[in-house]
Amino acid sequence: xxSAETYKLDALVVGAGFGGIYSLHKLRNEFGxxxxxxxxxxxxxGTWYWNKYPGALSDSEAFVYQYxxxxxxxxxxxxxxxxxxxxxxxxxxxxxxxxxxxxxHIRLETGMTGASFDERTGTWSxxxxxxxxxxxxxxxxxxxxxxxxxxxxxxxxxxxxxTVVHTGAWPEDLDLTGKRVGVIGNGSTGNQVITATAPxxxxxxxxxxTPQYSVPAGNRSLSAxxxxxxxxxxxxxxxxVRNSSVAFGFxxxxxxxxxxxxxxxxxVFEEAWTEGGGFRFMFETFSDMATxxxxxxxxxxxxxxxxxxIVKDPETRKNLTPTDLYARRPQCDSGFYEAxxxxxxxxxxxxxxxxxxxxxxxxxxxxxxxxxxxVLVFATGFDAVDGNYxxxxxxxRGGETLKQHWKDAPxxxxxxxxxxxxxxxxxxxxxxxxTNLVPAIxxxxxxxxxxxxxxxxxxxxxxxxxPEQEAKWTETCTEIANATLFPKADSWIFGHNIPGKKPSVxxxxxxxxxxxxxxxxxxxxxxxxxxxxxxxxxGV
Length: 540
Ligand code: NA7
Prior knowledge:
By secondary structure, the chain is α/β, with parallel strands linked by helices. The protein has a five-stranded mixed β-sheet, with no helix packed on it. α1 (18-30) runs parallel beside α15 and α15 runs parallel beside α17 (512-524). The longest helix has 20 residues, at 437-456. The radius of gyration is 24 Å and the shape is globular. The model has no long low-confidence stretch (mean pLDDT 96).
């Protein structure tokens, strides 16, 4: 303790989600460093602390939505269902925190308000909303890529007498039973909220701007034998995940859509529909759905046919049927389209009939209809990836802020390092892998850990990525993205969802296997793409 308000530590971890907790474990328990984690939330869990809305579930299958760094942890964790729901994930994360005795090193309800780097001493000074300042050599930011909530402006919102809530800041005690509920948005989150709320709400109105493609999730309970088998396959599962592209625990298809007959295509789609899973449907069926427009249309056509079979009311069916590319983050559901057959569920097409304003009673649409509501749910997404970074002032070498550094677009090298911000290591920073996220997070935390170990064992104090390498990574990510159909669809993956945000490439779409090869090469060669304060050759 330097003063009552300043703590000197080796490292500060910002964020207590999957990334922050693994980082803290690594630094404290594996390296014996003096490290602390802070989080603005009232509990650990990151995403899974905030997103307590009805129906919240990870659509990565449970057997790969866990840490893999500790076999015993994996074996001890229950595996009861194909997918894990929010309360189970939160309890898993809490279990990890207790198991590795990390809780006393996590300061909750403590948000980072700013950070600045002193080049002379090689120290980050991090201020918090608690008035506490941390002086550290390493700043590890696991701020959450889907955590800065996006709340669209609607006139009259302050006059609404009901409850307004964003899915990403869900109050634990909000009960929607019997209520008149409006939901704006139908991304992965809106899809889950609508499906889970329809059976309990008095009436549910979905305010839908762009219909999306969704396939069944196929959630089910796992038998004791299945659970045992998954646990026995620990080594082969993770070997496969790390050497795959999307890291979801299945082998991506190598079969082009039009290399097989129309009947075979139908059979493959039908089988994937029955098995369930959005990423499986997009990547396990055929190899070219995300890259070839005709192949994409074949899949889209299949899903549209299913929607036509499920949804009874012709007007609702029309409004629920997407016509654009199937190239956003793939969705899956537990009866989303079926929910619209319920008498207590209605859909308002707000592209044709936009929301005009909120009154004390509810939403008024352009046609003059008043949609009376008790609760209005904003399932309107997030200022993804860089949102939480540019909401605070982080100043690097020469006082340049991250916001200035990213004025054209958020960039980084490997999603981890950004030039001018030495020893600041991001978890899921811009242009990180677009995959099942836990294995991507582990790959990054492991790189960060190894990097810190090397720096600690050398005379150097800090490493800073070369600007030209950062530019090169952006170029690589752009080239890969442009070879896919994803940039052609408006979504948060490219920052299209925030008014005023300049669309840019935000992810590395080259797959986890290729990503891991890049990061491991960087370590093996001793940081060829970084400069250091002492220009020592390290780690070779
Ligand atoms: P998304 O995928 O960004 O979806 C946001 C939804 O909200 C989407 O349907 C939007 O419609 C809608 N939206 C956003 N702004 C508005 C306004 N101003 N008016 C009407 N409708 C609006 O967020 P999610 O939370 O569902 O998912 C984000 C990721 O979190 C998800 O992919 C998972 O990985 C976890 P639009 O399509 O833009 O017309």
